[in-house]
TrEMBL record:
This is GTP 3',8-cyclase. Residues 5-223 form the Radical SAM core domain. SUPFAM superfamilies: Radical SAM enzymes. Keywords: 4Fe-4S, GTP-binding, Iron, Iron-sulfur, Lyase, Metal-binding, Molybdenum cofactor biosynthesis, Nucleotide-binding, S-adenosyl-L-methionine.
Length: 322
């Protein structure tokens, strides 16, 4: 069993399979990105080897992220292998996802997190710099129709989409999905300063409460969101204090970037590289030993990690991994 120096059990890994994305969301990356060459990425064989090591050490959940994971060739091959050893979920922007929905259903994918920051096609183009709203909406409707557990993630941006908070909340009226409102984070890939946010989780909740009554739901262990239901609605809403970082004390996850770098905190530096260890022919025991060692040097929360990382240039979320 993997544990950190704060007695937190690690049983969940967020695994980015590519840094490539077919959108250019303004809060995530610049228009002109230089993406990695294929050989720089963890191969599927390396991913499966690492996941076998992790599941043997108690990890039972993996979330496949990117960039946009469906840009990685033969992703279904990887998913077919992973569902045999762990609970698998996926985060996607939905542009390419719709045709794969029947296969995801058949594989028993536990959950899909769909990123969508506006319900307005013209605004979608302004945010993403791409005219793909119709494709994403097709994915949203297809996932609902297929009955795959769905979380719809909206990054709340001051002056951009805050006028749509209640429109998103209204989606829960007839559909059993979870709409999650995420505080904006500094990982914009622009290399610019980030001085804080206007729309923190309390303000988001107040804006929704002005229109809908909210009833608090019990939060699942290790939940990163504060969850609510609107009486009479089939679904729920959640607010993720990603910048406020109120959930760090129960963090049970690690992140692996497309190049095999491992992060024990989203706001921290890379602490080891799995790809390089494998390609230097490290044994399984050596890899697990180094992993446990870095976990025992883990920061208590995202604020400690950010302070230690304050001189580093802010990365794109597509490089970090969703």
């Amino acid at each position: 069993m993997l544990t950190d120096n704060h007695h937190r059990i690690i049983n969940y890994v967020r695994l980015a399979v590519t840094d490539r994305c077919n959108l250019r969301c303004t809060y995530c990356m610049p228009e002109n990105m230089r993406f990695l060459e294929r050989e720089a990425l963890l191969s599927y064989e390396e991913i499966l080897r690492f996941m076998q090591l992790l599941t043997g050490a108690g990890v039972n959940k993996v979330r496949i992220t990117g960039g946009e994971p469906f840009l990685r060739k033969d992703l279904l091959f990887l998913l077919e292998k992973l569902v045999k050893i762990a609970e698998v979920s996926i985060t996607t922007n939905g542009v390419l996802t719709a045709p794969y929905i029947p296969q995801l259903k058949a594989l028993g994918i536990q959950q899909v997190n769909l990123s969508l920051d506006t319900l307005q096609p013209q605004k979608f183009f302004r945010i993403t710099r791409r005219d793909q709203f119709t494709a994403v909406r097709k994915t949203l409707d297809g996932l609902i129709d297929a009955g795959i557990p769905l979380k719809l993630n909206m990054v709340v941006m001051d002056g951009v989409n805050t006028d749509e908070l209640t429109d998103f909340a209204a989606l829960t009226r007839d559909h059993p999905l979870s709409v999650r409102f995420i505080e904006e984070m500094p990982f914009n890939g622009q290399g610019k300063g980030f001085s804080g946010i206007e729309w923190h989780y309390k303000r988001i909740l107040d804006a929704i409460r002005a229109v809908y009554p909210l009833e608090k739901l019990a939060d699942a262990p290790h939940s990163t969101s504060m969850n609510y239901t609107i009486p009479g609605h089939a679904g729920s809403i959640g607010v993720i204090p990603a910048y406020s970082r109120t959930f760090c004390g129960t963090c049970n996850r690690i992140r692996v970037t497309p190049t095999g770098h491992l992060k024990t905190c989203l706001y921290g530096n890379d602490v080891m590289n799995v790809r390089d260890l494998f390609r230097r022919h490290a044994t399984d025991e050596e890899v697990l030993s180094q992993l446990q060692a870095v976990l025992h040097q883990r920061f208590a929360n995202g604020f400690e990690a950010e302070a230690a990382n304050r001189h580093s240039q802010l990365e794109s979320m597509s490089v970090i991994g969703g």
